[in-house]
Amino acid sequence: MRGTRFDKAVEIFRRSGGILRTAQAVREGIHPSTLYAMRDSGVLEMVSRGVYRLSDSPPLGNPDLVTVATRIPNGVICLISALSFHELTTQIPHEMHVALATGAEEPRVDFPPIRTYRFVGQSFSEGVDTHDLDGIGVRIYCAEKTLADCFKFRNRIGLDIAVEALRLYRERKTLRSDELVRYASICRMRKVMQPYLEAIL
Fold it and tell me: Rounded distance, CA 151 to CA 144, Å?
């Protein structure tokens, strides 16, 4: 009986990329007692509180991004974490920067450390790309939107980080200047960014 329950649950996990939150697993038909028995027997491992993955899955290539995407499905990876993903910073982020819509409940995540930022309207919804990382869809702002956000939050992350990111972006072969200006307008940063754009681009 236990083998049958486990087999069905393992199949549900495999269909979901090998990783599920407790609430998702229950919605998919896995009883909580089965979930915990699978954890206790070593079939599942806990990635973070309330997030489980199959123990025989390949090692996660992006464990922090995957954990945040699983625990905060409506959030978007932003600012220094997004710069790091796009290879536009020399900073080593010590916490995950996550954008939340105004009014969204503050998430409770024990690991990795997170810092949340509140975004309004189009500044939250525009420029979101979903990347398939370790079988999980991870929402991350595109490079151009991230640059505009860094100038918007320059007092919190440092103007030097925003300027460095813009310089590193300039060194790329494929620049999307029109998109950069569009996101600067959406974030109401066009006037602030204009002198930097003129000097660097």
Answer: 11
Render 10-70 in DSSP notation, one character per residue.
HHHHHHTTTEEEHHHHHHTT--HHHHHHHHHTTSEEEEETTEEEETTSPPPSSHHHHHHHH
At 132, which helix (H) or strand (E)? strand 128-133
Q: Which of 168, 175, 34 is nearest to 88 (CA)?
A: 168
Tokens 């189009």, residue located: 122
C-beta separation of 38 from 9 below 8 A: yes
DSSP H or E run through 96: strand 96-101
Report the DSSP beta bridge partners of residue 129: 140
Q: Which two structure tokens, joined as six digits, stand for 182?
A: 């569009």
Helix or strand (DSSP H, E) at 53 = strand 51-54
Query: Which residues make Cβ contacts (< 8 Å) with residue 182, sequence separation at least 6?
Result: 144
Neighbours of 164 (CB within 10 A): 17
Q: For residues 139 and 69, what is the distance between their CA atoms, to the nearest angstrom?
A: 7
Beta bridge partners of 131: 138
For the stretch 48-92, pLDDT in tens is 777 888 888 777 677 888 888 888 889 999 999 999 999 999 988
Q: Is the CB of residue 141 less than 8 Å from the CB of residue 152?
A: no
31: which residues sit within 8 A by CB, 6+ positions away?
5
Say how far apart CA 10 and CA 194 lie, in whole Å.
Answer: 53
Query: CA torsion angle for 39, 66, 90, 187 (degrees, to 10)?
Result: -140
**Strand 44-48 with 51-54, pairing:** antiparallel
pTM of the model: 0.75
